[in-house]
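New to this. Explain these tokens.
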Amino acid sequence: MSPGSWSWFWLWSCVLSLSVLSRALELEELFEYGEEAGDQQLQPGSDSTAELPLVGTLYFFSESFDKVYINTNGFVAVADPPTEEQYLGKMPTSFKMIVALMGDLDNSDGQGKVYFRQDSSPDVLSRAAKHIRQAFPRDDGVEPKNTFIVTWENMAARGTSGRGDRLDTKRNTFQLVVASMDSSSCAILLYPRDGLQFFSTSVGGETKLLEGGFNEGIVEGWFWSSKQGTHFRTTTDEETSVRELTEKTNSGRSGVWVYEIGASPFFPAITPGMVSDLRDKEAATEPPVTMLPRQPDEQQEVDFTTYAPLFPTETPAEYQPSYPEAETITPTYAEPETQEPDEEELGQFEPEYPEYEIVTPMYTESAQPRYTSEPRYPDQTMTPYPDSEPLQPRYTTPETTEPRYIPLEPRYPDPDPVQPQYTNPEPVQPVPPHSRPHQPRVVVVDEDEDLNVDVFAYNTETCAHNRHKCSAFADCRDYSNGYCCHCRPGFYGNGKDCVAEGKPQRMNGKVNGRVFVGNSPSPVELGNHDLHSYVVANDGRAYVAISNIPDSLGPSLQPLSSLGGIIGWAFALEQPGYQNGFSLIGGVFSRQAEVIFQPGNERLNIRQQFKGIDEHDHLVVSTELEGRLPAVLLGSSVQINPYKEIYQYDRNLITSSSNRDYTVTTPEGNVESRTYQWRQTVTFQSCKHDEATSTAPSTQQLSVDQIFVMFDADNHLIRYAMSNKIGSVHTSLPEQNPCFTGRHGCDINAMCRPGEGLQFTCECSNGFTGDGRYCHDTDECRETPQVCGPNTFCSNQPGTFRCECLSGFVFASDGKTCIEENRPVDHCQRGSHDCDVPERALCSYTGGSAYVCSCLPGFEGDGRVCQDVDECQQDRCHRDAICSNTQGSYTCQCRSGFHGDGFQCSPTSSEREKTQCERHRESAQAATSSSSIFSFFRPRPAVGNYVPQCDEHGAYEPTQCHTSISQCWCVDANGQEIPNTRTGPGSTPLCINQVVTPPPVGPTPRPDVHPIAPGTHLLFAQSGKIEHIPLDGYNMKTEEAKPLLHIPDRVVIAVAYDCVEKMVYWTDITGPAISRASMSGGDINPVITTDLQSPEGIAIDHVARLLFWTDSMRDTVEVSKLDGSQRRVLFDTDLINPRPIVTNPAYGRLYWADWNRDGPKIEMSNMDGTDRTVLVKDDLGLPNGLTFDLDNQQLCWADAGTRKVECMDPHRRLRRQIVEGIQYPFGLVSFGRNLYYTDWRREAVVAVDRQSEKETEEFLPQKRSRLYGITTTPTQCPQAYNYCANNAGCSHLCLPRLGGFTCRCPDNAVPGQCEERNL
């Protein structure tokens, strides 16, 4: 065949391969199953198991078995498996299992079936052999002796059957065939098209992806010890890997996967099929070899993902490896062709082998390649390749054991310089045990002038197909072999993750694991403990906190500042010519560390997976701890000395090690010095295509000082803080420029630009504007209204923005375009729920297809069955009243001879006893002339006398006026004038009704919180209760508004919300008191009940965990911890009627308004009481409502005097009007682009769009009365940080201020036991 003909033949073979591959496995192409095939059937259920004795031998890993156990949940075990609670969601497990596709599956509804049988029929054996040969085309003698077949048909996810929400219609069908030869066994897994309709199940209340693979279980180790064996995964932690089981292959046919799973006498590994397409099968190439380092006592986990297609495609980001890559030997060969190549033509072809994800131990002292293999040439006369360095796995030392395959010396051309890459490196596969050596020959394809090269345009490794995989702040560039992402100027990272230079970074994640403390035989279990970190990028200061740490573990975790060390390295302050971790590798990487404590030799392993930046602009990390810590007594403090750590950089691998000294001071004052050794490995993927990519120095030094560690026993938090710099390992004079020391004074959202000597400039980060000393967020949504496209709305974020789909739309697969949503079922609206009848229960829709049933007041039960509560058995009525129970309620009626509402009954008299106000009014009216001829008329007051005004219940009206002198003032419940409230002619003061509204006749709800559905809500106060309105985006769902909390004997004024602990705080002026309750339900907890007179404003710093309030009778602004402890008066001078108060945690600022009639003002200070100043004093009337928008750094207020809502940038003093002509506003809150305020005259909650500067909607409560304070319950805390996030080492109060903090003592501190200082 001529070279030109061979070109055409090769081309059409490729095209034919693609066409064959495109045809998916159909359901009818599974191996025959069912009763007609002679199958047995597994008992219906959600965790059924059946034993199947085998005629032949099953070889699995290094052992042989004569029976297996079939289980409902999609796997086959070689021993009777435990209950599903012990393995679902907890892989790897202790027992051996072949996992076809495991999850919490169910076939108890009669639709699903699990069939199984042994089969040695010629047809089945022949078909199994065909699949194995297709997967291993170089293996001869594939002759199965027997098989067993398991088919899971129409399996449902447990808990979805019969739900009526269409989840019960999603069913999975798949099949496992295990074929055994004389000395080996292979598993054939078949996933037909449309056979997988769901990809996850609920396990323990959490959604877990289905998973596949092979688990070796517990195996024997050295010296009679045991260890976890290999866990070979065929799926990853991403849904795509499950979905692609039907679409890709390793055996030449989509949906068919073949693995050799064991051989005799010894075969410790799993070998996947080698044909990801038909071209591989035709070529019969020599397989490349994976070198897997493995420590004798260390668990090995291998995670193989799908094969690459014939022509290169982008490897999905979710298939990022978690551990070091093995090196790959991938020469290109083809089957015999006698033509000898010219040496310069050898580089024309790129090797194309399947890509895998390899998970191996992070750090090994003694390890060797699992297999080694080198190319074998057909004859010795062939032109040799130039010498090259032998390719060996880095950081491993070969063991003395013999390799299974004999290594040969490689001879290749000089390798290209190693370049970073995104896609998974092409690892080397193990040579299958049955493959015979072939004599490969190199084939040269001559160019044919008539060949249409467009036929080869299948390469999708270009920006045209992959631009969306780059960060929104990156550019995509095409190179000869692929594409790379590059962060734009003003941003840094690896191109797939980019963040603004100078911008603070936040990190969230979970901590899991088992840790032994001291000599304790029992571990402390960690399960999904929250980890939060904040880094001030422009000075390298990192803060880390882990929540819900028990006292038995917390003190001993203090020396482990290494948990936060990787975060400090990622965003360390860069010295000239050096780069921190995020600049080099971005936000997707794996880290494994080992800590050895001295002198006790305790060991702890740390595994962390950094998963990139989420939709909230936060870096996501998962952490696992395993091992033992030396014990530290509760109450001890730990001091860690500054240290330096050298980082060594190689291709996709970074290592470091160091020794660290620390001291432990016990509660008795004893000091003990200790040390620990530390070593870690970081693995990552970078882009290999950009030959010009700059690389970091091979060695860099991380310098860490100002290390702070503390276990907060009261809040069960472990806290770490440290300052980090990355620079040269060589000793030299430290950089003195403030940009490199971190002492520059630039805004936390700014970059420091060094100049000559000690000169520098501050420049706001991207997404912020200002002079660099102060930077405020740029509202991209307002400045570029069309930035998000159709069917979206723009949500401004600090330094950036987020596009969200409008209600009824969802993001398409590109993550950008919003398409119409196929909405789930609202069972409450449809009436397809199982709640009790509407007369007894309420069905509440909670999103998706979920809903909650709750009994109505007066009934009790689970919402599905509700029974009437007999309130008459609870002595609700007065002792002189008769109680009558009714369905859901009751009535109270005074007995004959008594009068009242049934809750209060008094003996009947000619007229009821007059109230204090009525007696006061009567005495004022009595001052009249009894001799007047008009004396038979009702007495009237003499001119000039003041007559009090009483309401219908006989109580004093809160506003009293004396018409003769044209003055009005406010009074308390006893009619006493409230100082500084008197007004002159033409104006009326804003007075709060201090009299408790009489309770209605009938049942009174319990004073506690009823749990509400997830999401953002508005909370507002209305006399004796707090109500909530759910928000749908920015729209009020008025039809779902209802009371959150009933306090019938209180007048609630101000409300605030703690987004961290999800608690609502409020003030009431009848106690007076400040109280709180959990939004998840429960009773009221008093916070402050003494030394209060009229608390009318309340605010929370959720970062520093502080509570602020105003008292308009005491004329004070005060602060305490959130539990009311450590109380301190900040201001008690130059205050007349202070009311609303708000915080700005990011800048340590406090704002409050004083509605003093003679001089209303809005003031500002630091939270420690310093830098008090008047912010606004002109054009104010009655500034009642005050709110602060953290995202946009805007202070807004509602004024009942000027009848306006206005906003101001408090940093630049820029003021603008939002709306005017409103009625009588009281409370105000900001949420996104909207402002919401309560109005006394309209008795409503009103929404205002700040962008359009128009009112958009209102809500009128069912019971009309004055509304007071208002706040929101955001689903996530606003991004903010201040120096008191961990109390900064203060003995008592830590009060933030701009650029620092102050340690302050409470007013009742014992002299000598509290230290005040400024930092």
